[in-house]
Design brief:
Blueprint lengths: L1 E11 L6 E7 L1 H9 L12 H17 L7 E6 H7 L6 E5 L8
Antiparallel strand pairs: 1-2, 1-4, 2-3
Length: about 100
């Protein structure tokens, strides 16, 4: 089985391990999200204190727009990631092949 994906996020391992997590999604989902954009939350800021208080609300509102997206995540070691040259926005093909055990 072969399927096309788009790289939507690259994140380092949270525990500091030598791994990178590559998040992938179907290219149709990326196109659909661009066709039906949601306006980012706006902030009325009159001081730095207002800005700091409002940032958390703004970021939480933006993440809700991403919650409906299905993602596939790959875990790669640092060497594999560096060799791959992947970056956000790249289209890739992922091939899954069942290994037949010899009789």
């Amino acid at each position: 089985m072969k399927k096309e994906y788009v790289v939507i996020e690259i994140a380092a391992s949270q525990d500091g391990g030598p791994f990178v997590f590559i998040s992938l999604t179907d290219p149709r989902e990326v196109r659909e999200s661009f066709q039906t954009p949601t306006a980012p939350p706006s902030l009325a800021v009159s001081s730095m204190d207002d800005l700091m208080k409002g940032l958390n609300k703004a970021f939480s509102g933006m993440s809700k727009g991403m919650s409906g997206r299905f993602m596939t995540t790959l875990k790669m070691d640092i060497k594999e990631y560096e060799d791959s040259g992947l970056k956000v926005g790249d289209k890739i093909n992922l091939e899954i092949v069942k290994v037949e055990e010899g009789t």
